[in-house]
Amino acid sequence: MHSTALATLEQHLLHALSPAPSETRRLFHGRGRCWPGLEQISVDWLQGIVLVTLFKQPEDEQLAELQAMLMRLTRNPAWQASGAHSLLLQQRYLADSPSHWLLGEPRGQWPIREHGLHYLLDLGHKQNTGLFLDMRLGRQWVQQQAAGKRVLNLFAYTCGFSVAAIAGGARQVVNLDMARAALSRGRDNHRLNDHDLSKVVFLGHELFKSWGKLSKYGPYDLIIIDPPSFQRGSFVLGKDYPRVLRRLPQLLAADGQVLACCNDPEVGPDYLIQTMAEEAPTLHFSQRLANPPEFPDSQPDSALKALVFQLSRS
Predict the structure, then answer these.
(1) What is the pTM of this model?
(2) CATH of 133-311, one of 3.40.50.150, 2.40.10.270, 1.10.3730.10, 1.10.560.10
(3) What is the CATH code for 3-107?
(4) 219 prior amide bond cis, ω within 30
(5) pLDDT tens digits for range 143-181
(6) In whole angstroms, how far apart are CA 204 and each of 63, 161, 174?
(7) How big is the CA angle at 74 (ends 132 and 135), to the nearest 5 degrees?
(8) How far from each other are the two terminal CA atoms of the chain, in whole angstroms?
(9) 133-311 shares the fold of 3-107
């Protein structure tokens, strides 16, 4: 993160804020390896709050230079015209991912919009805010597909897909995640959008012990699988993803669809396509959803994978 790279970042942010997005968006995605020297930094627009995330520890001088550039940015007319009022720096490379408010009043929670839907984010005290911005087109696709459908949302986290599905007219959504606190935030997100919670089920269970319970709510017209790449004690992608895929035909309705996702940069889309063919051969690859343009990647197969599969009983 040398001086030339920081100058590039500054110009990129000035351009991205002129004007600022009307909804939450990523402003700069260094992890796509398109800008040398900036591979370990991302910047997000949270509708008045700018969140800068560092994924690797810089030298002390580099960190000081970054902070000086960011404070200089806050004095630029583009910043002032954008409506930005707060600047938050998160150090993801440290234990507990501490965050520091460089400008503005600390806020533990913050409401944002995406495609007209409302979500509540956690700021300053958790590693993740509660909504992965690179999946916004996936959520949009679910909203467009959901009308009248029964949806199963595995590894639901804060239920972003569920919010999108109910907004799209889903008949019912079943959310499953081990983290009950995340599901509680999912309820909050649905309430923010004035959704009918009688259509939404929240199951705080371990997936591999819950197949029977899930079957009782099915069959499902759409199943969403968006697991972590690795979660100690609960999920390891290479070992556990096949165990999920082989269960899908038993859970799906005729002509059902699956949205299978993977965010591991070391795993390309062929892994999911080949593993699905081996574990659930009646499900056929249909398409890979595009990633948002604000997430450019010099190696597309390393970027987020969101693949659609279609069930065929014949």
Answers:
(1) 0.95
(2) 3.40.50.150
(3) 3.30.750.80
(4) yes
(5) 999 999 999 999 999 999 999 999 999 999 999 999 999
(6) 40, 16, 11
(7) 10
(8) 55
(9) no
